[in-house]
Design a protein that fits this description.
This protein is mainly beta. Helices cover 6% and strands 50% of the residues. Strands 1, 2, 4, 7, 10, 12 and 13 form a seven-stranded antiparallel sheet that branches. Strands 3, 5, 6, 8, 9 and 11 form a six-stranded antiparallel sheet that branches. It is globular and about 50 Å long.
């Protein structure tokens, strides 16, 4: 019936092209506090909305998006480490957004730990989302399974 077809069409995403990406850190690298995490290798980027040179996702349209971030590091000490998800609402040329999610962890010196964060955000077209590390300098454990950033449009 026409009624049911219209209801199904109402549930379809507005965009024909799905928006989704996954990127990871490619090699062991030092990371310092307040550094943007360098997710520099794309696994896929449907919609071409993730920038592997600047390490951020830019929303192609208004909508709701889901993000997952993980960073695996070798702990040089037992001090707090965290990853934060940032939202940058204005194109200023630099990444200076506001924190919209954070995950903190403490660990044992010399151990490898993973810090994970998942967040759903309502974005406007052009909003940029990226992740930063906070804590004493550490070494990133690379690879798709260990240090990744992914996201997709929900609606």
């Amino acid at each position: 019936s026409t009624f049911f077809k219209e209801k199904i069409d109402d549930l379809s995403p507005e965009s024909e092209e799905p928006t989704a990406f996954e990127a990871f850190v490619s090699s062991p690298s030092p990371i310092s506090s307040n550094n943007v995490i360098r997710y520099n290798v794309e696994v896929f980027d449907m919609g071409e909305d993730f920038n592997p040179s600047s390490y951020y996702f830019a929303a192609p349209e208004d909508g709701v998006y889901q993000f997952n971030v993980q960073l695996t590091i070798l702990l040089p000490d037992s001090q707090e480490k965290s990853i934060s998800l940032f939202l940058d609402e204005e194109e200023t040329g630099s990444l200076d957004g506001i924190v919209v999610g954070r995950s903190r962890i403490f660990g044992v010196t010399g151990r490898t730990i993973s810090i994970s964060l998942s967040k759903t955000l309502q974005l406007e077209e052009g909003d940029r989302v990226y992740a930063r590390f906070n804590g004493t300098s550490s070494t990133v454990d690379p690879g798709r399974a260990d240090s990744f950033f992914s996201g997709h449009q929900v609606k």
